[in-house]
Amino acid sequence: MELYAESLTEYKRLKTLEVKVGDLLIGNYHPIRIQTMTTTDTMDTIGTVEQSIRCIEAGAELVRITAPSKKEAENLLNIKNELRKRGYFTPLVADIHFTPNAAEIAARIVEKVRVNPGNYVDKKKFELIEYSDADYQEEIERIRNRFTPLIKICKEYGTAMRIGTNHGSLSDRIMSRYGDTPIGMVESAMEFLRIAESENYYNIVLSMKSSNPQVMVQAYRLLIENMQSELGHCYPLHLGVTEAGDGEDGRIKSAIGIGALLEDGIGDTIRVSLTEDSEFELPVCKNILKRYQQSKVVLPVDEDINGRGILWTVSPLSTENNDQHSPVPAIKNISRLNMTGMDTRKTFVVRNIGGKNVPVVVTNFHKKENISREDLKDIGYKYNPVTDKWNISDIAADYIFCGNNEIDFALPGTLKLIYNYDLWKKSFDKTKCFPVLNEQKYLDDSIEKSPVLNFIMFDCYSPDYPVFDKQKFYEKIKNDNTSVLCLSTENKNAVQSIRRMFLELIEREIKNPAIIICDSEKDTMDESLIHFAIETGALLIDGFGNGIWLSDHYSDNQKIQEYKLMNSIAFGILQASRTRISKTEFISCPSCGRTLFDLQETTAKVRAVTHHLKGLKIAIMGCIVNGPGEMADADFGYVGSGPGKITLYKGKEVVKRNVPEGIAVEELVSLLKENKVWVEPELSVSF
Ligand code: SF4
User: Percent of the chain beyond pLDDT 90?
Assistant: First the structure.
């Protein structure tokens, strides 16, 4: 193991125990499973069956259904029977919060139960209590007494379990001792895991979800480390980002959190939680997993270790992802990669790149001929010919790479150009444009360079890359405060390769800013979005990268040239990785059988009036039972509290209770005004 992964420089899946969910095997190198959750009322048997079927046909290998009380848990039997009658044998999972009685019923019916250790035994009162060690132990015994009956039922019925920790719903006990931290999340699961193992029950999957991908990734890494050191083995991991929202933002956030772990071989099953109909989650899961070329692994003979009923199977690792890959050097100072997130790489500033500046966005216009003022609208700059002024949106790109295409009109002051070297050399006004050079050209001291800013392409361990004097390159660039590195790789495991290069730069004390270049040759923009989010987001959340430069060959080839979408994806990635906040952040639950209003419609309504409140975090949650706990670090919350009733929160505090749904959005706006976070939208400019 290298810290939390089998390898940090080549793709190897993490070895985990094998868990049996009905006939489905999870963990132990089995293909990564995809799953979703229904949004119907669990008492609506036919509605739930039909939605489950739509999900199964879209690819779900497990379907989760909420069981908020005993009656819903009992109705799982009718749902299961109806599905089986219609020829669907996909395992079902009961989702439990607060109700051990419902869990004990469901565990006799469905193949798996999910419990949330933050609320399985405890009712959350948001109280900070000082526990002595003896008090704490007493609490653990109380959990043991309440949790053990469920374990015994699961053992008897062969039912699997997910211990699913959520960042937003940690118990008061955990919050008091560990705070709202990844370590608290891990300990919350470990308390339950220790009890389960003491009963010799191992058919368990674990999850550590958060709506913040950085917190989520840190928690999974810590969990793996803790399981390895304390138990000597790892349970299979279910990956997901909670309350990711909808549309492009929800997909980006999920891809960053889930992808950052999958890139290091971590994760045995995934769920993408979107505030959309459940079946729309599955194509996103598939697009994420396509990167890892899932194939059925032929397993050798099963081996029962220590008579525990665990099937440990040794199977070949999927090495397909290591094709087209030259070796990436081992990491020398591995302790630098700490489990709670890597240190941000310290850099100096070159113009507006590096240091404490937010990461920049470079737009690719190199295939666009005759670039006009109108074209800049797609990347956040709208020209007004009457006033001869530019309106600049919050998602305006910082640089345009024009290649050999010259721009001859006056640019907005915040926008600069990157030209290929020969065009830059003959350009008249070198204050608005800067050159891009490859390594060999950079090493050529006889050619002119910009005294302000040079973009230097730098390859990260690609196979068959032209040879140049690397030592000389490192020495030269280290003392050059006009140069920004642009890191790219041909290696298939781009995240590991570029991350390794960032570490090499740290080792060599090279403090030039570095932009991450990410190319996509995927077949669709949906796939490109996932690709960009994973390959840049996974690095950004670990503190690497002073900018991103995305390039989509599919659009180029098809002449679709989705500049607006590409710009929006770039800013979406920076927002989701919390490195550059340019818009309101919406934290909305995916909805389930507890939801008290039309979550998709309401999210759209709230978004329509608050989308311009840059940096504000607004949660839209379907129910009062879980919503307030799950909305994590939102600044304001809009939570269903009864049929047609909404309760508004400021942080965790209730400020308007049971507001009629018809006026709740207006009341939310009033609340934002009262708290002086409201600004009027600029009506005149639409991008
Ligand atoms: S917060 Fe949303 S997804 Fe979670 S239990 Fe409530 S309605 Fe269901």
Answer: 69
